[in-house]
UniProtKB/TrEMBL annotation:
Encoding gene per record: fbp
Main location: cytoplasm
Subunit structure: Homotetramer.
All residue ranges annotated as the Fructose-1-6-bisphosphatase class I N-terminal domain in the record: 2-194
Assigned EC number: 3.1.3.11
CDD domains: FBPase
Record text on cofactor binding: Binds 2 magnesium ions per subunit.
Entry protein name: Fructose-1,6-bisphosphatase class 1
Cofactor (UniProt): Mg(2+)
Amino acid sequence: MITLGEYIVAKQYQFPEASGEFTRLLGSIRLAAKVVNREINKAGLVDIIGATGEENVQGEEQQKLDVYANEKFKAALEARGEVCGVTTEEEENFIIFNSKKQSHSKYVVLMDPLDGSSNIDVNVTIGTIFSIYRRISPVGSPATKEDFLQPGNKQVAAGYVVYGSSTMLVYTTGYGVHGFTCDPSLGVFYLSHENMQIPAQGNIYSINEGNYVKFPDGIKKYIKYCQERDEQTHRPYTSRYIGSLVADFHRNMIKGGVYMYPSFASAPKGKLRLLYECNPMAFLAEQAGGKATDGYRRILDIIPSELHERTPFVCGSRDMVDMVGDFMQEYSADGHPEYHKNIK
Ligand SMILES: O=P(O)(O)OC[C@H]1O[C@](O)(COP(=O)(O)O)[C@@H](O)[C@@H]1O
Ligand SMILES: [Mg+2]
Ligand SMILES: [Mg+2]
């Protein structure tokens, strides 16, 4: 069995200008993932359950594990010196790492340190999401906001850690999607899923139907389509919603399916964050043969303007994402971000 570290080194030939910086950067994410995984596994026994009583920049109540994971990933990225700055869901502003070595680093990282926070206290699968870019500001100078506001199609790597029945780290560097499972007895990630491929068509739809009445007509019609009986197209589909993006995405990655978090009246841009939730998942989905849109446009082509901006999200099996797009065009064309601009 090949370890994550060995696999990354073995694939370095794919990057002729490689200096080992990226390998060490991924190594720091791997290390922090192990530390966070250990805390999650004993969550009921240590004081890591429950809320901190503080609110984060999203206006959401921060969970103790959100803060713990945020601190551990930040510390690991800062310590190795391969990153000149980070943005995380739990920090209002981006953080500059400014030691001599760090300011000479080429990379910035954006993270959702703990994804699926509403599932922490109930022992349901949660995750961590990361996205990596080459900086655009000059090497040697402090990182700038522009380094983080790059479109998703500029990512050099993305991945997630899923803390479930087993703990896996899944990533892409633009050469396919590869999954590594952690052997808890050794704390070592071994290659278990090389070149993951999302089936083009699945029979699982994943959405919080509790918001049904608030959804755009295109989404409502698509949900009805999923629930209709039609032997030929294996409908009705199955509804599965864990409420942790990482877990719902990972399941659909393996079994096929479509995950949707649309916009609605009280959340005109949806809930999920473009930079450290949707862009990394979109890069992984496309690298595995799937697709990711905001219901209309390719997520990876959206030009970000704010660190914590949100976007509607439709992601998973290619043919299912296309079908959702057709329903949105037909029944919610006025919801297209460009719609009002194009109305003369
Ligand atoms: O409870 P809702 O509204 O369905 O939202 C669930 C979604 O929100 C999230 O929990 C948001 O992520 P965080 O937990 O990192 O804030 C996603 O993981 C999940 O898919
Ligand atoms: Mg999240
Ligand atoms: Mg989070």
